Amino acid sequence: GQGVDEPLSATGFRQADAAGSFLSNVKFTHVFSSDLLRAKQTAAAILGKNRFCKDMEIKYDARLRERKYGVAEGRPLADLKAMAKDAGEQCPSFTPSGGETLDEVRERARDFFEFLCQLAVELEQKEHGKPGAPGRSSGASGEQFVFPWTNHYSEAETSSEGSGSSTVLDANILVVSHGAYMRNWIGYFVSDLNCTLPENLTKSQLSSVSPNTGVSHFIIKLENENLLKPKITCVCLNQDSHL
Question: Across 67-177, where does the E strand assignment appear?
């Protein structure tokens, strides 16, 4: 939850370092993190291993905090399940006293995602306004942009220049957050924004909470800078091969 702001354990630091090594060749344009300590430390560890972004500023945002669990915070998961059972409900839909509802968490996720989309559009407009300015990735080595498990990123960034049908928005954003929050965010992508999922993804995988430092990769296209209808493709969900 939010109320218990503990640092990473020794295992947590090892996991964060492993994630950093895994993503060390990915050149990010922006890094955002929850302002809770465990997320801050994870983001710092990831950047510390990166070949290109060691000195990049991490921007902390309270909208990325874990779901607030009220009276259940700091207690074992078994206690939360017992509270839900006593209330005649099931986790994760149960909201403990003083906690956030799933709808409230999703609203935070929606607000932050729309902020990211606006950021990408403004970035593109700024670059577009420079006379003779090359694209942000122009002349860059391919290894800076290719993720460890796929070449989808470079494929997705192929410009349809001349067709007039879309605008390539070149932002590559790392977001560090928390399990229950991210599950709600992904639910928003799927149910509200019709995110395209990997063919082999099962329903149980879709509804599960990511392992610590699990990596999910989404490609977002905003055709004609349309913030209302982003086209979202999930390349992978809760990837944990680095662990």
Answer: 173-176
Local confidence pLDDT in tens for the 243 residues of the chain = 998 999 999 999 999 999 999 999 998 999 999 999 999 999 999 999 999 999 999 999 999 999 999 999 999 999 999 999 999 999 989 999 999 999 999 999 999 999 999 998 888 888 777 654 444 443 333 444 567 765 444 344 433 333 333 444 478 999 999 999 999 999 999 999 999 999 999 989 999 999 999 999 999 998 887 888 899 999 999 999 999
Provide the angle, in degrees to the nearest 10, between the axes of the packed helices 37-48 and 10-22.
40
State the Cα–Cα distance between residues 31 and 14, nearest whole angstrom.
Answer: 20
Binding residues for substrate: 38, 66-69
Nearest by Cα to 227 from 140, 167, 144, 173: 167
Q: Are 33 and 58 in contact (CB under 8 A)?
A: yes
Rg (CA), the chain: 19
Residue 22 to residues 18, 32, 120, 155: CA-CA distances in angstroms?
6, 18, 25, 20
Topology of domain 10-66+101-125+170-239, CATH:
Rossmann fold (3.40.50)
In the annotated binding site, the residues are 38, 66-69
Q: Specify the 3-state DSSP secondary structure of 149.
A: coil
